[in-house]
Amino acid sequence: MGANLPSYLWFTIYSVTEPMTTLPLPLYLGPQLPRWQPRTAADVQAAIDNGTLTERHWLDVKLTLGGSSHNKEIACDLASYANDGGALIYGVSEDKASQTLSLAPIDLAGQAERIDEIARSRCDPPLYVACHPLPIDPNDRSRGLLLVEIPPSPASPHMVDGRYYGRGDTTRRKLTDPEVARLHAVRTMRQLSAEQLIEQEIARDPVPPQLRKLSHIYVVARPLATPPDLLAEAIENRALGDMVRGLNHKLGTPASPHWGYLESEEPRAAGWGFRSYRMFGGRPES
C-alpha cells in the first residue's frame, strides 16, 4: 500500500426514525441525577414519592391533552423539546399552592395517535415522537398516563405557526432570532456527509504523508445532541482513555493497525483525541 494513500475504515451511523422497542429510552433529567426509565404508572408514582419527578428543562407534566383547540399548544410543547430532547407526561396533576404532584389518569384511547398526528402535521418540519401508554391497571389499558418521548431532532428547530420554541429552566419560551439562526447553523452542520467527516479527520492526521507506511483507520461519530455534562467526569479523571484502551481487550487484534496502537492522547476543542504516535516538539515519532 503506498505511503501517500492511507486506507481508512468508514463508519456511517444513522439516526433511528422508528422505535426499535415499545419501552421508553432512559430519560435524562439533569446533572447529578440517574437516568429514569418509567415502564409503568407505578414507576411514575415512585418518582413523585421520592422527589425525582419535578418539572425540569427536559421534563414536564400535564393534566390532560384538552380538546382539539389545544392542538397548537401541544405542537408548541413538542417543538420546544426537539432542540435538546425531553419528555412530557400526561395524566399528572400539579397543586401549585403545595407544589405537589399526583396521578390523575386519563382516557388513553386514541391519544397516542393524536400526539403523533400533531407532531407530523403541526410542526414544520414534521417531528418524530414516541408515545408510551402507562395504564394504571395492567388488566385495563383504557386509562392511565401517557409518556411522550421527544428525542433530539436532527431537523431542529421546528416551527409552529411561524414561531420557534425552546425550553427554559422549567417552561416553554419563544426563541429569539439569534437562537433560531444558531440552531439553523447547527442543522446545516449536521447535513455533512459521513465522507466529509472522514475527509476532515484524514486532513488533520498529525502523521505526515511520507511517514504513513501502515494502514490508517479513521472512525468518526457525531451525536445529534448531548447533555451538558456528558463525559465530563470521564474526561476529568481520564477514565475515557482507559475505556478506549479497554476496547483492545474486547475486540482482539485480528488486523493491523488495531486499538492497541493508541499510545498517546490529547484534549481537543471538540472532545478528546487518541493516536498511535507520540508527539515530541510538534514532530510525530513512533
TrEMBL record:
The Schlafen AlbA-2 domain, residue ranges: 55-175
The keyword DNA-binding appears for this protein: yes
InterPro entries: Schlafen_AlbA_2_dom (IPR007421), Schlafen_AlbA_2_dom_sf (IPR038461)
Keywords linked to the UniProt accession: DNA-binding
GO MF term list: DNA binding
Pfam families in the record: SLFN_AlbA_2
Protein name, entry field: Putative DNA-binding domain-containing protein
Organism lineage: Bacteria, Bacillati, Actinomycetota, Actinomycetes, Micromonosporales
